[in-house]
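Anyone have tokens for Hemolysin D? Sequence:
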Amino acid sequence: MNIKKLSIGLALLGATSASAFTQLGGGGIMPMGHEWLTRTAALELLDQEHIIQTDPNDPRYHWQQGLAKRTDLTAAYDEVQRIQAKSNNNSSYQPKYDDIYAAIVGERWVDIAGFNVANASTDPTGPNCFSAISQEPADLQQDHFMRRYDDIGGQGGVDAAYRGQKRFIEHFVNAAMAEQKRIQVWDGGGYSAKTEVDHNYFLFGRAVHLFQDSFSPEHTVRLPADNYEKVWQVKAYLCSEGAEQHTHDTKDVLDFSSGDVIWQENTRLDSGWDSYSASNMKPVALVALEASKDLWAAFIRTMAVDKSAREAYARQEAQTLVDNWLSFDEQAMLAWYDNQQHRDHTYVLAPGETGTGKTLEACMGELNVGTTNQTERVAQLDAERRQCLYNIEAEPGYADLYDDYMGMPYNWRWKSLTWQTPPNDWQPTKQQADSGEAVVIKSAVDGKALSVSALNNNERLTTALNNPVEWLKVPASEGRYYLRSRQAPALFFSYSGSSSGYGKLWNSPKQAEYEFVYQGGVWNIKNTYWQQYFWYNQDKHRPQLTSTGSADKQHSKWILE
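Reply: yep, here.
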């Protein structure tokens, strides 16, 4: 399940899909959910809250359980300083720091995948791709700590819980080990907008989302007896037999009774930042915030470790988080629903089971998806997902970064304004998560690197400075590449339209696709639009793209490091 996002708004509320804790911004029809937990946990951990006043009625003052357990950052001083050196005052979330904003965008991606939820198709005749790609696929339920449709009975709950734990560790480690860079992604919801974020902390948001979803009463059973520290059962989204279900009632979200809403029901009419107080939160959501402090502390400590030793350290930190916050008693989970008092009105009877509960067909009928046959619905979702992915492609210059779980690029576009039907034998290709190759470009004449005075649009490339641009070789077509700035993802290696054709940074990859021709330890850089080579004007300390360039001449050869 996906905590509902503030940015999704009425469009999401009207859909059959449901997110976990809600997600919006600071002033929409739904208050923040995931975003609030993510930013507030980080800011409380760092003692940097700058919007919300201390709440004298904060119930945590009296808690003995459910509090963060491992928040020491003594060994991560440099990483803390690095985080605090780059501010971000996004008005919707007030994250204060850019890496916190990146994590918010990352956790939102898990639910929304950059879609405009109100118009999640290339044309009205197509399927709802928001639902088909990011919300309902069976293989993605573990990203929301939920059962697949075929996780049946007690064993199904155990399997789903183990699967969720494993996926959490995977996301945590992947985020820690990803290449450091800035990336462009779509942030969706009630509308879609491109935004620029840190790569590692964006991917960390995937782990944050799964971790927080495990606290939603729509996804799992946790109990006040241990102040919601342990998982007792895992719920389902598509009528899994022998399990309670995620509710699909918009009314419950609007009146705040839904487990996906982190705020007390009596705060529904409150508004403004003053309403974002700990005493207004449901107890399980407040525990999720405390647990998220541990999660943030673990990742910050991990990012402070040298990369050569980071993977093992990350895995250890993630396992400790699992032990402390995602643990469960396998035998108790296997027998949980044998006690009929543990079944609520959403419970679907397992095969051969009697007592409190409804049939699979009755559950499917309540979804209003055009069929009461679960197998048919799964096949329908698979077909819609395939159709959606066929109609999506990476924006030119951004085909290096993919969500290899959803199967789509982070910076994407529709292939056409009209719906395209995939060939019968077409299946989505498994994409590499990060295929960009980092390089610095130096002249083979004098070994000096292409530099800029600042990473700005229209900035001229020169070798007269010692500030090398780090480039990413991004796959284009037929063995060709774009060159994108590693730290300024909107900027590409391009050239002036003047007669000199001097090299520069430009905010578009248009007519800036290149072939790299190997010349025994050095390379030609050939522009495929003009069919010309970049050459080095040593007198003016700059690269130029004109007919002077020649594959055989030394000034047209470059070192890629």
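The chain has 13 helices and 23 strands.
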